Amino acid sequence: MLKRISVDQLRLGMFLHELCGSWMDHPFWRKKFLLQDPEDLRRVRECGIGEVWIDISRGHDVEGGLTEDEVAVQVERELEEVAEAPTRLPPTAPRPAVAATESLTPCRAADEYGRAARIVDLAKQQVESLYADARMGRVLQVDGCMPLVDDIIGSVTRNHAALTSLVRLKTQDEYTYLHSVAVCTLMVALARTLKLSDDEVRVAGLAGLLHDMGKARIPLAILNKNGRLSDDEFRIMKMHPVWGHEMLVAAGSAPAMALDVCLHHHEKVDGAGYPKGLKANQISLHARMGAVCDVYDAVTSVRPYKGAWDPGEAVRQMAQWKGHFDPAIFQAFVKTVGIYPIGTVVKLESGRIGVVLEANEASLLMPRVKVFFSSKSDLPITPETIDLARGTDRITGVEPAERWKAEMLADLWLDGALPRR
């Protein structure tokens, strides 16, 4: 049985199942293990993670903590509250100017996938070229990125979820480049949820596109290592915000927001982040936005050392990481991607299993779903699209996506809109 406990309660002899935080922020990227080495215990306690999951069937137990069921109930209750609560900025953030009314016509996700796919292909080429310049020591041409950002804004304006969902389908080899595109897209969508001005939306998108440029200086053997990093390797990895900031300063034309997001997107509101260990209001609004967008895309992407989380699982895992994200920003992010983001596998009250096609504007708790399996008969069923807002069924829980082939799920939620990439 799994139990979530404070890192202060962790002792030798416990079986460490998982750390409650992004694997980008600690060196234990892959391995579950019995804590026997005092050095491993020290590293866990000092890596900036506040809570961990232990498996009490494979190691020592401790009084207190929460079971999986208790945590699941707590998280679902919090997400339901988010669905009903108004979007708000952190109290210390300045009130933004409301964005101008866009002339682009909104559309459904299925109608935007074709255009979004073309943007992804072009964006990959441009970002790959940008990284090549960085590795060669050339000055980055920041202004040349703005047409791409504008294309992404156009796609998000027509449908905020299509490009965000499509770019998740990147392969391991594409990750470095398309992660930048994904974070750009998420930053644009989140900025629009927060009703930032048009100019601020554009710069937020640019900041997302450039936030990880410092990784161009990290040796590929470390960047793509299939296993946990040594202390020295992790120190090198944690230098990428500083190196990226240096590159953007040298470019001479990067906006202040892009510089700030690049340097501070790994800071945490509890002060356990890096490179400066900033806390709460010391971290800018835009860097707090960048922190959430960066982690969400990372954990929903396939990496050499881990599989991708289902987007619904990612939202629920991130909701547990107290002290990591600004609560108001995270709530706005959940409203942006959805309580059940596109691609989430859900179980319905009828016993049918389905994959989420699109959020419902009337309620984040009642998306459009394509059902494909019956848990009662344990057999596939003819796929059928259901709008849960019509009250014919309801979601009772999120299902583990690993039970199903990722390709099959993508084919279902893409709903035949375009060939698989």
Structure description:
The structure is a single chain. The chain has helices spanning 38-46, 68-84, 109-135, 146-158, 162-166, 175-193, 198-210, 220-223, 231-237, 240-251, 256-264, 285-299, 311-319, 327-337, 406-414, and strands at 2-6, 15-19, 33-34, 51-55, 66-67, 345-348, 352-360, 363-374, 379-387, 395-398. By secondary structure, the chain is an alpha+beta fold. The chain folds into 3 domains: 2-64; 85-337, Hypothetical protein af1432 (Orthogonal Bundle), CATH 1.10.3210; 345-414, no CATH class. The strands form 2 sheets. The chain has a 5-stranded antiparallel beta sheet. The protein has a 5-stranded antiparallel beta sheet with strand order 9-8-7-6-10, with helices on both faces. The longest helix is centred in the first third of the chain and has 27 residues, at 109-135. The protein is globular and about 60 Å long. The chain starts with a strand and ends in a 7-residue tail after the last helix. GO terms for molecular function: phosphoric diester hydrolase activity. Residues 154-349 form the HD-GYP domain. This is HD-GYP domain-containing protein (C-di-GMP phosphodiesterase class II).
